Amino acid sequence: MWQQIQQSLVQSIERVITKIVTLLPGIVAFVLALIIFAAISWVFAMAIRRLLIAIRFDERLSQERSSLAEWSPGSTPTVLVVRTVFWCGIIIGVLVGVSAFEAASAEAGISAYIFGYVPRVVGAAILLFAGNIIARFLSRTVLISGVNMNLQYARLLSLGVKWLVLVLTAAMVLDHLAIGGQIVDLAFGILFGGIVLALSLSVGLGSRELVTRSLEREASRPVEVPTEERKIHHF
Amino acid sequence: MAKAEIVEEPQAQAEKIDNADLLIGVAGPANMAEVKAKLDQIRLEMVSSVTRLKIVFACLGAGGLDENVDPRGIPIHLVDLQMPAADPSANPWVIASQSSRALLSLARQVNARVSIVLGSDLLGLDVLTIERLSFPILEKQSDLVMPVYPAARFEGLINSAILAPLNRALYGLRVRYPLPLEFSCSLRMAGLLSQQESAHAASSQQQMLYPATTAAITGSQISQTHLALQHEAQTDGLDLSTVLAQLAGSAFLQMEQLAPHWQRVRGSQPLQSWDPPTVGKENGGPIDVSPMIDSFMLASRNLQEVWGLVLPPVTMLELKHLARLPAAQFRMPDELWVRIIYDFALAHRLRTLSRVHLLGALTPLYLAWVASYAQEVGTMPAMAVEQRLEQLARAYESGKPYLVSRWRWPDRFNP
């Protein structure tokens, strides 16, 4: 009995060790490929950075009134290009590493599965990045415009816009990654439909008189500028 | 039967004119019936003074006018001005700047000794204005003549608060209206302004023309003349935020391009002024500043996060103190306002946040300055108002070392 247990244990240890030994070259190949591609990407990114600085890329772009800097003002266009190049190199390194892992470890199907999923991950990452930037930009635009229009609820409006875009982005990312399946679509549809229905009901029933009064006030408001404004000419 | 008119191509019209003495141009689309009436009057009134001068008049559509209507009048050659297609979203100042550039190119083409650029409202299209703008160039060897419009305490506040004092502190010349509707220049200056245009060809189509700045950095001789013209505000259909963003944005953009020049300049020099000053009409009565203060208060509750990206902690603290003051005591110190403008200019250069947001966030601060200024000068006599603006301009000059330090070392110098 004890011998059988011992034999079973030894065999399972042997199997695990054999598996590790089989996988080890693949893991080493993966890490090595990643390091090599990271180094190549870094060198390539630095070379591009020098080139862009030499041709005064940022100044040219700002002279041409590019909207790129408006959307991501924290980083210069050069930095954005360099980072993009570097991360593209890293992604290629990961793909090469996965391929090397498969070739070295004789584990069939891994790279096919990962390669099939990588475009989704990249797409989702781009969606998340773009969604965040758009949410921040629109939220700030609404806040500043609202304040300049003297809207007391400018911050609330800005937060609403921000979360609306973020929720929309999250739903798109999950859908793109094929996580949650139909549940995300349904939940998002219900959430949006609910918001619209709530607004319709509140305007149509609950706030009918308030809206009427507000519209009447707007309609009867004189179009001309107030007297105080007429006295001041900003230019 | 209607008379058939053959209008020559503008290029051909200009080529036929050689060595003009005076080029008078209208910067922007103008009412042609009014142009015709005013030109007829000028032809008759200018007989005695400038009979021997070869005068060219250029504006959009001028080719369709008759050159000699009254035989008693002096001849004026007409040239249809060619202008680049206007961007529908462009503001009046950009359109005027584009037209001015087209006029200056024409001035080089016809070798005009003096080029006079007039506003498209045609207020300046009269003999007196033309004489005042041409005299310093023809007789006193000036390169550029800038206008001084009648002083009025609540007119042109963006100019008084930002453009004029900022330009004075940066380029060292006390130009009262750096973004003029009327100005005149010599052939040499027209050449310099045209060269500046081609140097920044990519962006110049949207940039406003600051002739005095080019003259200042090229060491040209500038003078000012008082013009009794009161232009109506050109901001119809534009809100304050948009106008402020465009005007302040253009000044900040120019600061960025000319940084090597203005960092060396210290203090400022007065300009030679011609003709007596004129007094503008006053609207009279105190102004209710509470809406402007309310706008600032609302912004100080909501825009702390945005202002915090641009302004250093000391300035933020002072703004908090300002927000706590009762309306009657609401005063924004000049030093605070100057630092705000300098910090916004720096953030514009560094792109600390989107330029659309940056310039939008300046509006409530500007309104706070207007409220403070309006309370201060509401009952002052006109002379005292001028002194008050002079005090503000001196504050800009005193604060320049702060700007230079932050501009050179934005990370190291952040009080």
UniProtKB/TrEMBL annotation, chain A:
The chain crosses the membrane at residues 20-48, 80-101, 113-135, 156-174, 186-207. The keyword Signal does not apply. It comes from Acidipila rosea. Signal peptide: none annotated. Keywords: Membrane, Transmembrane, Transmembrane helix. It comes from the Bacteria. This is Putative transporter (Transmembrane protein). It holds the Pfam family MS_channel_1st_1.
TrEMBL record, chain B:
This is Uncharacterized protein. It comes from the Bacteria. It comes from Acidipila rosea.
